[in-house]
Amino acid sequence: MSDSDPAGAPVLPQPRVSGGWAPLRYTGFRRLWLAQFTSNIGSWMQTVAAQWVMTSLTSSAFLLSAISAAGSIPVLLFAIPAGALGDLVDRRRLILAGQLVMLGAAAVLAVLSAVGGLTPWVLIALLFVIGAGGALGAPTWQTLQPELVPDEMRTPAIQLGSVNQNLARAVGPAIGGLLLAATSAALVFGVNAASFVAVVGVVLITRIPTRTSDLPREHALSAVRAGGRFVASSPQLIAVIVRAMAFVFFAGALWALLPLVARHRLGLGSGGYGLLLGCVGAGALIAANLGPALKARVPPRAIYALACLLTAVPTLLIAVTHSVALVAAMLVVAGAAWITGLGLLSAAYQGELPAWAKARAFAYYLVAFQGAMGVGSLAMGAVAQATSVRTALIVVAAGLAVSLLLTWLLPMPEGNTALEHAADPLPLPEELTEAFGESAGRGPVAVTVSYPLAPGNTDDFLAHAKQLRRMRRRTGAIHWHLHQDIDDQLLYTEMFVTASWDEHQHQHARTEHADQLLLAEIDALLRPGAKRIAHHSVAVI
């Protein structure tokens, strides 16, 4: 049965179940989710093998932590331009390009491991290439999947995206560890390469929603800048990014240090290490089942606090014990807290994104998230090498507690603001579009808007003007100013600049429902019978 009609629009049957797993009832979402799950299992198997191989090649804690960083740091370099491409080009082709890069690098890794050609830096370099392929498709992949379900299902769909990788922890590390113990690292790397083949096949047969627009096509560099302005002018997004960085900088380092805990503190082999990571995944499975009920009963800020504390306390206990059973139990708790925090933050962030900025704006979250995880892993690895693994784990626990206190007062979006971010374009007058038709590529374009206020409304207007500034910047303005008339102090003039007439057209199309409400509130502050009047001009010199 096809999941789209002849025109390519997805056909979304009504689900027969509710709850956190309901999005899996939709064929397109289920296909991609299961393909991602398969690939994530392969990736965790690769991680187990790579970390174990590294411990056989060197005793350096720093190089061991660099394995995690090799998968995270490429996001710093490539995710933002990849996010812009995700909003501009054919999404299927972009995802396939990233998968093929990962397939090629994973195959080379398997061959070199089989012939004994791996060195620490060759291993890190190939993991970096695999990470680069992942960065190429990650913003598009993660923002595409929620489009395959109805609007009311998008929040649980986003959360399932976070669940996916952590569920893979429940089986990937265990399979990887057992397969590594029974065969060789080369075979484990080869299985991971095969998982990318499966993803490529699923992407080829799955209908991807098409995007159409009558507006001029954006240039890649302009799209990158527009995404950056949108994020920078959205306080809610900045708050989520700061929380995510604080959380994963420390919590992510626990997983990077776990091989050292297994080998040197607990005396376990590769199979035991894989089973410890399986405990992390088991905690993630518990959180996936309890997550919707927790979200319905507990405010997001409190859930975030629980995630931090229930990662910090187990980390502290792991630092001071040599009991395998206690470490395993604490990893179940930490795994549940980890996925709870990740799901909360990702859903809160994506819930704030409009359609036009999905991939490009989400790329900034990925950069912050993966960058903080990579740098945190390196930093805690350096602490472990300079002192001890025990000391590094204590620093992780303390860092989580301190970061919770420092970020407590930051706003925490609910992640369900679809109505506010619904497109509500502000139409351009037809005569203006015709007049500027020949100037489409020219710029910058300056727009001035006059606001004749009614007496007594100045303070309210200036309060609204702060939101107006963020709105203009968020939708495309590169400069913004508000001026007060010297002769008529109740007359204010807003001036903002866009890079070109094309960009100004996009700015009108990016107007959201919440923006229209803001403009309506400002109109209510004007003199009776007065209207705001806009004038447009294009630079000539």
Structure description:
This protein has about 550 residues and is mainly alpha-helical. The chain has 17 helices and four strands. A hairpin with a 6-residue loop joins strand 2 and strand 3. The longest helix has about 30 residues. The N terminus is likely disordered.
Question: What's this, in brief?
Answer:
68% of the residues lie in helices and 5% in strands. It has helices at residues 27-57, 61-88, 91-114, 120-144, 154-182, 185-205, 220-232, 235-265, 270-297, 300-320, 324-350, 358-386, 389-407, 430-435, 458-475, 501-509, 513-523; strands at residues 445-452, 479-484, 491-498, 533-538. The protein has a 4-stranded antiparallel beta sheet with strand order 2-3-1-4.
One letter per element, helices H and strands E, the order comes to HHHHHHHHHHHHHHEHEEHHE
Mean pLDDT: 85
β content, as a range? 5-15%
Q: What's the total helix number?
A: 17
